[in-house]
Design goal:
This protein has helices spanning about 20-25, 40-45, 60-75, 100-105, 120-135, 160-165, 220-240, 260-270, 280-285, 290-300; strands spanning about 1-10, 15-20, 50-55, 85-90, 110-115, 140-150, 165-175, 180-190, 200, 215-220, 250-255, 310-315, 320-330. It is an alpha/beta fold. It has 2 domains: about 1-175, Thiolase/Chalcone synthase (Peroxisomal Thiolase, Chain A, domain 1, 3-Layer(aba) Sandwich); about 180-330, Peroxisomal Thiolase, Chain A, domain 1. It has a 5-stranded mixed sheet, with helices on both faces. Strands 8-13-12-11 form a 4-stranded mixed sheet, with helices on both faces. A two-stranded antiparallel ribbon has the order 2-3.
């Protein structure tokens, strides 16, 4: 019995913002403190990013999510007509729920759930959908994740502006009786005592933040960095072990795009080739909840995956939360060698 990915989709807004453009805004970046590097040079050297996509004014997460979901449904083909369940993860809106708007935009009558989950959101949504499909016998589910983080970035903090991008990704899951394909295992956990590593100005732990800044996210990047490396490694190892595999069995790692540098360091820690890690950060930045799903869709469209490949999808994020999913990939147009 397997809940199998039969379609993927993603959507990135049209606007592309480069490192140089951010520096030109008069942000708090000081080239003298970085050995004379421009923000373009610094961003590529220390983050591994050159650009990211941001929404146009008035463009919301429901629009991005609906477009990603529509593409996933088209990719899944006729089986997608029977979608009974929508699980969406985002921290970009609460009421009204974006998932309701997505359901309406896609013309689906499916039951929907929305998770208030950031960078770990896509894998969280996969876990919820997988569990509901097993428990309530839903046959087909649409799992969507994404954020419009550009609305929540301080206009003068170069680090925030350099890291985050907007976008959404989606997959269609299909319950296949007797199939060896599909989601095989999960690993997950939360470190709530570290919740103040990522906050918004209106959060309880951010009292004293000026009212005009209460809208913006605040990230303690140096603390997040060390914690993320440990939790990425832990999540990957646990999920792979629970699937009855070893790291040598893994064909691809499709990680949350915290930064290209973090992804590469995780690969080195695990002793795995960097070439096995799908990295989109250079062009997308950290798209928060949508990160893993967007990378998965891009890699699929590039025909990286073959039928029978083992994929691991790890993520870390605000909360602080971490997780990983392991699945056996089904690619009907690429028979197993």
């Amino acid at each position: 019995m397997g809940n199998v990915v039969i379609g993927t989709g993603s959507y990135l807004p049209e606007r592309v913002v480069t490192n140089q453009e951010i520096q030109d805004w008069g942000v708090d970046y000081d080239p003298a403190r970085s050995g004379g590097l421009s923000l373009e040079q610094w961003g590529q050297k220390y983050l591994g990013g050159a650009s990211r996509h941001w929404v146009a004014p008035g463009q919301g997460i429901a629009e991005l999510a609906a477009k990603a979901g529509h593409r996933a449904l088209l990719d899944a083909g006729p089986a997608a007509e029977a979608v009974e369940l929508i699980v969406m993860a985002t921290v970009s809106t609460h009421l009204p729920q974006a998932a309701a708007d997505v359901q309406a935009k896609l013309g689906l009558g499916a039951k929907f759930f929305q998770l208030d989950s950031g960078c770990s959101g896509f894998v969280d949504a996969l876990m919820v959908a997988d569990s509901l499909m097993d428990r309530h016998r839903y046959q087909t589910a649409l799992v969507i994740a994404g954020d419009t983080s550009s609305y929540y970035l301080h206009p003068r903090r170069f680090m925030d502006l350099s890291v985050f991008g907007d976008g959404a990704g989606a997959v269609v899951l299909r319950r296949m009786n007797g199939s060896e394909y599909g989601l095989r295992s999960f690993s997950t956990g939360s470190d709530g005592d570290l919740g103040d590593y990522v906050t918004s100005g209106g959060g309880q732990s951010a009292s004293g933040v000026p009212e005009e800044e209460a809208h913006y996210w605040r990230v303690q990047f140096s603390k997040v960095y060390a914690w993320a490396l440990d939790r990425y490694e832990q999540g990957i190892r646990q999920s792979v072990e629970r699937a009855g595999l070893t790291l040598d069995d893994v064909d691809w790692v499709v990680p949350h795009q915290a930064s290209a540098r973090i992804v590469h360091e995780v690969a080195d820690r695990l002793g795995m080739p960097r070439e096995k890690f799908v990295v989109t950060f250079e062009r997308t930045g950290n798209t928060v909840a949508g990160s893993v799903a967007i990378a998965l869709d891009e890699a699929k469209r590039q025909r990286k995956f073959a039928d029978g490949d083992w994929l691991v999808m790890p993520a870390v994020g605000a909360g602080m939360a971490w997780n990983a999913a392991t699945c056996l990939w089904h690619e009907p147009n690429s028979p197993r060698m």
